[in-house]
């Protein structure tokens, strides 16, 4: 059996620049920009040697001396056969994919060829050249289908000239001369290339035409057109832009009402009128002659809003209308439409029936086939299903409602979020009010807790919204741990409000394993809040995956094949304590730990309310906006995206090496963004001051002994003595504290006594491994405490014989860390 490294080396031998891809995925699992100009040969061993199951990615363009025509449809195959020729297609390197074919062509090493696409009524394909790539055999597609060589790399033909220039870019605007076909500009390309002066009216009209075809409501349509107009430099006059928008909307509405008004074989002899479907019948008139007329065929009408292409098929987004029952929006699966029994069940679920009239002219074909033709005759737009919400390169910040960019908001056009996402991630990004009102709300919420808490948590949230940008430079992203007692503002105060301001409408949850997995795979920006984590052991693996962008298996929709889901969502967990978590050094290094006091005693900071409880301010803000601040989250996202260039400063914000340095830099990126939004320069000093506390960021540098074992034992012995700290070894105490070392407070402990005490406690397997005498001794050496220790008296027998044992002590700085973790720092100060 060939191993992944064997396959990678073979692809490399053909001159391909090869990158690793995770099983059943398509994107490289390593940053690959630099490999567009650098060979990957010397990296293959490290990437593929240890991999049991891996996919393979070939970079197209000069580095591999190849380009690829990616065809997934009969339209694309027909175009290629017409303009390239079946003879060439059947000679050159070819791969059978899950949906079609990849045709490989050879280019010269110094030949720069641009990538382009064509998706319209004439053709449907992607041409992959410079800065792109393709998945190569024997990789496995997400559907479980393997990519297969039809003809190998050794027969690659030179690239046909027709592919060297994108259609419509030959200078005459009438299409590629070699191809002879008309070029067609798409909305995405239009929005990327607004004209500077000439052609502004034509450009805006074409954009408005795209919007008018896919948008349902005129207010959303007009907002989108005006947003597009603002992209022009200079924009068209407001009245002129409005006139163009109105004209195109009216024309489209008229076209919609007239479409399918002529019964024909193309629309299944069905037409929509008066919220019903009608068909042609042939009857004798009053004069005895046969005549054609229209009669009801059903008690409902269907409007196709779009066709969504998924990895397993497709479905129609439809509106179902019935007289007196309004509009119902739903999805109509291809599997339902292709099965009469399933279709009847679906229709019955909407209260719909089909009752064809007698003497109907068109009787051939099933109900399903006629409805499909009727839906297709409406020319619904084809859109691609998106597997998660959040930032999508080349599209924008994808939400349930539409797409947000730094320029504004637009409806879904060429994409549609996966349907399950509405259940998995109940988020909302509203655009109520304006930017100024949103800033004012955010600034007020940022006063509803201690300054270091709001600065750190607010900064982390801003970084979350830029997480995909940050991960391009780091490869991982820290999760947030909020430690604190009840009444810290998680449900009704600062934290709840901040979560809503970045779109999270569900608040803190205690999820099942399956819910946690699905939610972490469904959004890459707005964080999920898991509360009351008294036992984080059960989700430790998912926490690691969320930080590193790892994957997990689950059953696919057919309950037979497994599919991999990637954990991409930022995660915040909260609770009063985390047994076992602090002992996992690698996990803690991937966390930002925020120790949160209760804000219950805070006083109002508003003018005229000094001395009054701030809780009243919190409640007033909730009441003012109906306890829903997600209505402003769209403005927050747009403002953050407007400052995405701040991510480029990340390398210069690293104050230390390793994960700790990267973690600090990622947090400070968010701080800089938040300062720009609020115009508040004092936030960075607050974060810097908090970062000086080693408990805040550097806990991952300390072992289980420091972070959990000693603090837990110290708390236990203090609780036995009415809140007094143990100050001697008497009674064979595992731990105590005194000032016997140069007058400074130090903690003493005995490894064996401490191991014996820990063994009596309920522990997770990971805690048990770190709680043995041998493990504690190794951790002690790790923090630089060696030697045999000092002898301390532990008891005195009836005969006056003293029992002694050897104890080691921590230096004052580490003693302070343990006291803080045990929440006994104030007790020690009071004892002084």
Structural class: alpha+beta
Number of domains: 4
Mean pLDDT: 82
Shape: globular
Radius of gyration, CA atoms, in whole angstroms: 33 Å
Overall description:
By secondary structure, the chain is α+β, with helices and mostly antiparallel strands. Helices cover 34% and strands 21% of the residues. The chain folds into 4 domains: 4-163, Prim-pol fold (2-Layer Sandwich), CATH 3.30.2250; 265-380, no CATH class; 435-699, no CATH class; 704-831, no CATH class. It contains 30 helices and 33 strands. It starts with a helix and ends with a helix. Strands 3, 4, 5, 6, 7, 9 and 10 form a 7-stranded mixed β-sheet that branches. Strands 16-15-14-17-22 form a 5-stranded mixed β-sheet.
Primary descriptors:
832 residues; alpha+beta; Prim-pol fold; 4 domains; five-stranded mixed beta sheet; 30 helices; globular
